[in-house]
Write a structure and sequence with these properties.
Blueprint (H helix, E strand, L loop, with lengths): L1 H18 L5 E9 L10 E6 L2 E7 L5 E6 L3 E7 L8 E6 L8 E5 L3
Length: about 110
């Protein structure tokens, strides 16, 4: 009887840990110039959840970015600190779509 209670307690603890684990899905892709299709480096890629920026990464020299989404329903905003390109945003549901190979064309100002 005691072994059964210990086993049950361990099982419930493991289930609780998995249901409260933090959410994580990869959001990745490439930002590029919509006219000449060249990759753009230095674009800020920010995740916004409930109106708050939760993280920001920059595109690398090849235009690639990658971040781990903190929520299944998230908004990703692309902005150019230099002001050469217009900002863009997309709403994502990482549970319903593959967000690991996004293609993001950006228009010049």
């Amino acid at each position: 009887k005691r072994l059964f209670l210990i086993s049950l307690l361990a099982y419930v603890s493991v289930c609780f840990a998995f249901t409260n684990a933090s959410y994580s899905r990869t959001v990745a892709g490439m930002g590029y110039d919509s006219q000449d299709l060249t990759p753009i480096s230095g674009i800020e890629v920010s995740e916004i959840v409930a109106g708050e920026i939760v993280q920001t990464v920059l595109t690398n020299v090849e235009g690639h970015f990658s971040l781990t989404a903190s929520s299944s329903k998230t908004t990703i905003v692309f902005s150019d600190p230099s002001g050469e390109y217009k900002s863009s945003q997309m709403s994502l549901d990482t549970d319903k779509q593959d967000c690991s190979h996004l293609s993001v064309p950006l228009d010049q100002n």
